[in-house]
Amino acid sequence: MLIHNFLENSAARYPDKVAVIHDDQRVSYQQLNTWSDIFAAHLQAAGISKGERIALLLENSADYIIAYYAILKAGAVAAPINPNLKPDGLQYLLDDLEPSAIVASFKTERLLKATKLSHLGLKAIIIRTPKQKWAGTPHKALTFEEILTTHSTTPKKPIDLTPDNLASIIYTSGSTGEPKGVMLSHKNIVCNTNSICLSLGITALDIQMVVLPFFYVMGKSLLNTHIAAGGTVVLNNRFMYPASIVNQMIDEGVTSFSGVPSTFAYLLNRSPLASCRDRLTTLRYCSQAGGHMAKSLKLALRKALPSHTKIFIMYGATEAAARLTCLGSEDFESKMGSIGRPIPDVTLRILDALNQEAPDGAEGMLVASGPNIMMGYWKAPQDTARALTLSGYHTGDLGYCDEDGFFFVTGRKDGLLKVSGHRINPTEIEDFMMATDLLIEVAVIGIPDELKGNKLIALVVSKNESLNQQTLLEICAAGLPKHKLPAEIMTIAALPKNPNGKIDRMACLRTATNKTRS
Amino acid sequence: MSDPKDKIKTFIIENFLFGNADGLNDDTSFLEEGIIDSTGVLELITYLEEEFSIKVEDEELIPENLDSINKVNAFLNKKAA
For the domain that residue B36 is a member of, what is the CATH number? Predict the structure, then answer.
């Protein structure tokens, strides 16, 4: 079984059913499958062969879905990339990935034009509704419109693919600060898709509201699970206007909504969710993953949602393709704080420092195994060897298992912070700020924040007493993605240190917390 | 500079476009052009509430009210009426 078989099987069973809703566009399974076949044929005609990487650099849309399954049908490897990156960030990923083609949209054209592409040897750039001029450049640029309205006379060539073949590379933040490409096989994604469908009871009757981006493995799992089940995905890229999300959930009879902690914080604090409670009659469940959500938020969500709406708390990792555990709605209150129990086909263990299984209640490293665990990191054998051992995938999370078999996460081993669903290494931000030459030293720490998970505070020791904090923030804004920007800069005389002279991050956290309170 | 439209435009340019106003018209869609994301909308609302002494209700957080300089200006006029 291969990932694109989900689409093909559902197209055979429900050809006329609406698979995708995006604004005014409604696409049936048959259309989705046919268009992705045509797109795949074009990719092959452009010279794309098995195993070549294709970067997906566009927002959630029916065209994204067509391109995603087309890439898989052509035997190539789908590499979704955050379209909100700055040119430096994109350059790094493209140089690492060495794609043979890039699929983009008019929103990412300027980003592409600001990136060096000539050394990549691209066979094609395909753009959705382009606004820039590509004629005269060395790149053969096609449009979605050209591809999908020109029915190829050359049918898609059969490809000899197996479930163990590489299907997707998804970049995630690494402990060194540089993103790492997580390599997922067809088997990884197919198995995890089936496990999630079983855990959440996803069927062809389900209509999923998708506000999470497809470049994020959780967002992609929403797509694959509902295509596998023959359900419908409703794409809404206007989460910055949450009232419109709630209205559409009601209008389309949405049965499920999924988010990360900041999604729910925003929905609870800035949308009419609670006042629309009685109108959300079809909402079967909400699922939350992507990091720890504060108890106060969980309780507020329970209160705001209709009593018939279940809440599933899930835990996972990109390396797990994407989920590992689920806390069922029936345990929501009694096991508050737990990430639940492993989903089908996943084994999760708590290992101590000697790699032995820890007894119930004892803290150790969460280590996972199963057919969903990644193949490894792209071009990073040492990182792969550190993460994947004979014991399984070392998640980097510390936690314990209680006597009932429920798992709890207590912290991160490597100090990465989750901000608005993004895994962030503070060192990367610190390095950037030091490069301004305005500072003697800096520590970026995260203060727990209900909206974002963590609020980034930069504690700085400036070279000059008259440091203009606004100037420093503007420099950061010009060079860092939004989710890596410090929310606040605090100037202090010196950073707290350990006896061995290293920056004491816990003391920094205390300092920042005290300053925030005062 | 007391015209609300000018104030809104300046806020957008300074906070989201790093001072570069190329391509920003009064009817440019913030959403379509990727000028503002979720966090940015919160910042815009905070600015509007503080600068113009209004309260943006949850149900008013829709693109029709906030997705361009013209729309924000019309929204402000409606709130003032």
Answer: 1.10.1200.10
